[in-house]
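Note to self: keep these together.
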Amino acid sequence: MKKSVAGVFLGMVALLLAATVSFAAPEEGITSAETTKSVTKKVRKKSADQTSLIDINSASPEQLATLPGLTGEDAKKIIASRPYTRKNQLKQKNIITAATYDGIKKLIVAKRQKNL
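Structure:
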């Protein structure tokens, strides 16, 4: 009886070990180097996107005019109504239209000025 219980127990351990190893195996065709490259590209893209944001509190009229849908008049209105605590204030204060704001909201930021 003891031998059969031990045999069943060892069989269960072997099955559990085999299942664990098969789930831990990486997908075929994907190497760790490829995974690392993919993660690195995503991090670089995200940091590049963040550095290219235009600060509506400090941007020049020329910089603001590069945003899609903004005219020189819009840029002057934005500058005249500074400072902003949040970028959505452009829409809330009717400085630009909601449609224009929707087109540029991912390209702008409203950084708070540091007190000197």
